[in-house]
Amino acid sequence: MTEQELRALVREAIARHVDQRAAAGPVHAAPSFDRGHASQLLLPVARGSEGDGACLIEPTVRCNHCGYCQSYGH
User: Fold this and answer.
1) Domain ranges, ordered by start, for the chain
2) CA angle, 67 as apex, 55 and 34 as ends, to 5°?
3) CB 60 within 8 A of CB 67
4) CA 55, 70, 52 angle in degrees (round to 5)?
């Protein structure tokens, strides 16, 4: 098979693929979220200082400002 024959086969395959997609109708885009996935959003929890005390997630330990309470934890 020569390079020209291979190019012709590739062009034919692409044309078939494009024709099939055009015949299938318009493609609708998936909904997009302005701020990304919910697991990556930060909740409005006020940041404390070193002496604020207990962790919101695990009250038996002191807060170490890990930020886990500001997310959904995913």
Assistant:
1) 3-28+37-70
2) 140
3) no
4) 35
Distance CA 53, CA 68 (A): 16
To the question of pTM greater than 0.85 for the whole model, the response is: no
What residues have CB less than 8 Å from 38, skipping those under 6 apart?
72, 74
Residue 39's alpha-carbon distances to 1, 52, 70, 71, 73, in angstroms, are: 52, 26, 10, 7, 7
- pLDDT in the model for residue 47: 64
Distance CA(42)–CA(2), nearest Å, equals 58
Q: Can you say how many angstroms the Cα of residue 54 is from the centroid of all Cα atoms in its chain? A: 33
Helices (H), the chain: 3-24
DSSP conformation class of 60: T
